[in-house]
Structures are given as structure tokens and as C-alpha cells.
Amino acid sequence: MGYRSDVAIALRREDMVDLLKRAEALDRDAFGILLRGEHIMSDSGRYVVWHQQWIKWYEDYEEIRFIMSIVRGYDCYAFKRIGEDFDDIETENGYSDDNDDGFVLDELIDINRSFDISGDMVDAHWLMEVSK
Hints:
By secondary structure, this protein is an alpha+beta fold. It has one domain. It has helices spanning 13-26, 28-36, 62-71, 100-108, 124-130, and strands spanning 5-12, 38-42, 47-55, 77-83, 89-94. It has a five-stranded antiparallel sheet, with helices on both faces. Strand 2 and strand 3 form a beta hairpin. The protein is elongated.
């Protein structure tokens, strides 16, 4: 089955389009990974965040190495990965201090470990009463 991660990459819109086109032309497996993820636009379409949950994200996989080598070549990006283990969080940013886009990209991906529980909220006192 393998170890899984949630991964997000934030880029300027033109860089995300470039990444998709290069992957389509040069690495069909990488292109497939990028297509399966969600693409979320923000700031009136200026930036795009690619997000994929529950993916085997190993840098020794050729398609992952391909994606990250291109991403690291842009002058501005944010990469964040959350592994299955609670303390397995990786963040990487590529931008200079005088580049405002980098700060924006970094803020677009917020790491938040939490529960998402479906059902109706009940009061503990009510629960004790109906269980008598």
C-alpha cells in the first residue's frame, strides 16, 4: 500500500500552466498526477494551488522528481506536504525577500490537522438523560 501524504504546491498562474504543459509534453505520469489533483485559483486567478490528498509522494519516484525539479526552477513557489505520521510535515519555499508573490503563495496553503466528523452535535447532559 505504501506511505501516503497530502501535498500542495502554490504557483503563479503562468507557472502552473507552464508546469502542466511541460509535464504533458515530457512526462505523462507526472501529467496524470497533476490532472488528478485539485486546482484552486485565488487572488482573481493570479495564483493557483494544486492539491492532492492521499498520494505516494516519494522524491525518488521519477514523476515526482520531474514535478519538483520544474517547481524548484521557478523564482517563486510554495510546497507543503503532510505525511501520515503526525510530525511528518515538510515545507519548502522558493522566493527572495523582495518578492511579495512568495509571501502570498506561502500563505495560500495553511497546514491544519483536525478532525472532520459528520453527524449532529448533541449535548452531553442530553446524552446522559436519554441513556437512562
